[in-house]
UniProtKB/TrEMBL annotation:
Source species taxonomy: Bacteria, Bacillati, Bacillota, Clostridia, Lachnospirales
SUPFAM superfamilies for this protein: Barwin-like endoglucanases
Organism: Johnsonella ignava ATCC 51276
Lineage: superkingdom: Bacteria
Pfam families: 3D
Domain 3D, residue spans: 196-250
Protein name: 3D domain-containing protein
Length: 256
């Protein structure tokens, strides 16, 4: 019998070096860059340098701790699936982000059993910490709905043909959500607009088609590498609103 000891050396608030092989699952060599936009995280909090990273959710779980090189970070925001990077580390200044540059780093994660336990804790904490953010988002959404009331569907729209159940997420036009396409027009050539624009898989919903989700009529104007099959991304102007929307399953109807 032996005792495995762990040794941590503080580097800066929220960041620490790992000397023991706690993170035993090797993910691979991934492209890692940095950002400094002070946008709220998925949890409705300000990002913390040395702790916060944005990552592709096709690779990592929200709230998961991952080891990049010899430092451990926490996934607190999403990264666009079409981004050239797999992970973006938050820095507290633009100069620091530029200095970080683009690197190829060895990335590790905990074992599957440890990740499952951590994910349960993260989900529980997420519900508590994002409660106020959701309330704020709901108020903002209510105001947005008033502005876009002309685009809302009526009961006749709901009676349109059901397209089936879709997984619904949200995005905005910032570098975290839209990667290299941040600030640019949609795939259809128009600028995205809250209450109107959605990203779809063109093989499922044709570009230009109008669909009804929760009584609101949207137009399929955008696409994304992570949007395929029965998956829709709703556009929001505000990053915090997009983050707090989460992942939902909704029945989608063709607008009449």
């Amino acid at each position: 019998m032996y005792i495995l000891t762990f040794s941590f050396a503080a580097v800066s608030p929220g960041m620490y070096e790992v000397y023991a092989d706690e993170y035993s699952s090797y993910v691979g060599k991934l492209n890692v860059s940095a950002y400094s936009d002070n946008l709220k995280t998925f949890y409705g909090e300000k990002p913390v340098a040395g702790r916060t990273v944005s990552a592709k959710l096709s690779m990592f779980d929200m709230g998961e701790n991952i080891k990049i090189g010899d430092k451990v970070y926490r996934v607190e925001s999403t990264l666009a699936e079409n981004a050239s990077e797999n992970i973006m580390v938050y820095c507290d200044s633009k100069d620091a982000a530029i200095k970080y540059g683009l690197k190829t780093e060895k990335v590790y994660r905990k074992s599957p059993s440890e990740r499952t336990a951590a994910k349960k804790d993260s989900t529980s904490n997420s519900k508590k910490s994002s409660q106020e953010t959701k309330k704020t988002a709901q108020k903002s959404k209510s105001g947005s709905e008033k502005e876009t009331s002309g685009s809302k569907s009526v009961s006749t729209h709901i009676s349109g043909k059901s397209l089936g159940k879709f997984q619904i997420t949200a995005y905005c036009n910032c570098p975290i959500c839209s990667g290299q396409f941040a600030g640019k027009a949609t795939s259809s050539g128009v600028m995205p607009k809250e209450g109107r624009t959605i990203a779809v898989d063109p093989s499922v919903i044709s570009i230009g088609s109008k669909v009804v989700i929760d009584g609101v009529t949207y137009t399929a104007e955008d696409t994304g590498s992570g949007i395929y099959g029965n998956r829709i991304d709703i556009y929001f102007t505000d990053h915090a609103q997009a983050q707090s929307y989460g992942l939902k399953t909704k029945e989608v109807f063709a607008a009449q």
